[in-house]
Amino acid sequence: MTKAVIAIHGGAGAITRAQLSPEKELLYIKALSEIVEAGQALLEAGGTALDAVTEAVRMLEECPLFNAGIGAVFTHDGTHELDACIMDGNTLEAGAVAGVSHIRNPILAARKVLEHSPHVLLIGKGAENFAEQQGLEPVSPDIFFTQQRWDQLQSARANQQTVLDHDEPINPGTKFGTVGAVALDKHGNLAAATSTGGMTNKMPGRVGDSPIIGAGCYANNANVAVSCTGTGEVFMKTLAAYDIAALMEYGGLSLHQATERVVMEKLPALQGSGGVIAIDSEGNVALPFNSEGMYRGYGYVGDAPSVGIYQSQES
Amino acid sequence: MTKAVIAIHGGAGAITRAQLSPEKELLYIKALSEIVEAGQALLEAGGTALDAVTEAVRMLEECPLFNAGIGAVFTHDGTHELDACIMDGNTLEAGAVAGVSHIRNPILAARKVLEHSPHVLLIGKGAENFAEQQGLEPVSPDIFFTQQRWDQLQSARANQQTVLDHDEPINPGTKFGTVGAVALDKHGNLAAATSTGGMTNKMPGRVGDSPIIGAGCYANNANVAVSCTGTGEVFMKTLAAYDIAALMEYGGLSLHQATERVVMEKLPALQGSGGVIAIDSEGNVALPFNSEGMYRGYGYVGDAPSVGIYQSQES
Question: Which domains can be identified in chain A, with CATH numbers?
Fold first, then answer.
């Protein structure tokens, strides 16, 4: 029987000890640990990788510390546009929603697309209508509000026009991440899920890598499950998540080699910053990132969870 | 200097001689030939691959015979939701729009995203606002109307509930393709572009592979330019366009081997039907499809265009 394991992330970016108070740091460590533990418990009870990543991402969406669901960042217009994606490595079925504002947990809507529609990606009002038909009660976007994200929008509007200035590269300071989970269950199945509020001050209608299969999320029992966070556009152009699978499948690289190649070489070559979490079919785990920090954690069933925020640190 | 070449497609599907009158067949052959010739002329004059695929897809969108722009299929609600994508193999820059209803030529909006935004994918109203800011005059969706597509919607509504029946696979009979172009210019640059109206009777909000980098469209000077048409969801889950590039880059396959592997093995394994057009960095051309037919054509600069519709036929 496979040694089941789950890994999660809560976004990557310019996260340094200097920026994070000890109190805030403790909140992140506690949240990450609890979510890894919930995933471990689910897998230990024989749950599927698909259920484990769904539940982990739902919890990350519910936690206001992270940029997905409650606590999601604001668009330039002061609205929320949420994206999420999930893929089952066993069947290669996938579901995603993009640009939704009235779904409390976009990952649950993505799961409904995977299970109850012949489609992979639904956007905007059509996605919201489908989610409602599937029993997900519509919510007012007010529930996504947090003071911190609102203040970040005011600051971005006042100081950083780069996201709206089409001649300039995206300012990484306006990025506050994405959440995601990957898991391997006892039955040998891999799954991946990703969810995000996007970029603070983003142009309404902008969709990044999170809801795109092969860019921000990919899973295939034959090789690997991957969830990404970072400069979304570069992850889209490099097909970062699927590229890791292809490097393993066609290039014969190990999980470690493939994730390092993508995160430390291919993404930076196009000015892409961020990281990935990945688990291969043998249960190896890799959590590389090329930014200052990445909120992350993982745990094998039966072990204590391991979580980290900065470089060279697992606590 | 590289031998410049362009290839185009006007969709794949259940296209047989029995279905197509000789008069209609002639219309398709004439349209395909003219569009290949326009691309050849542009490349012969030293134009870039990016300009050639933009112009070829713009012409395909303008032609009511094909399911993109004018002549696009209707959603279940009797509306039009158009998607397009373009990628420059020289810079790996890309632009795409999805779910737009007021842009006459979605490929021109995608090109504007590529050139004048830091983003890759814009959807819905946000994409339309951006296109208008970039000088593309908004249009009434009435301009996309053709009697044939309207009749197809009525027939699909009356007889085929499969697109809306979430327990059934997508009925290939409700698919009427996509358009696309790939080109290699004299300077050695590759580019790819894809545009579609999606599926007749589709659920509003459904987005297929066409506007997704790596699924329906991919270009990289290092290996290949690809544009796809077919069962969109399967092309998304298999990353069909990027998979061809990865098989060549990491697996050492030739253009012919890589396109055959994807179109004849990997797509059918997930019940995916359709085809691709692809040109590699040496100017080799492949136009494989696993369906009854694919509207297609290609032409090297200085040669007569070669066009075809059915299997085993180039005229």
Answer: 5-303 (3.60.20.30)
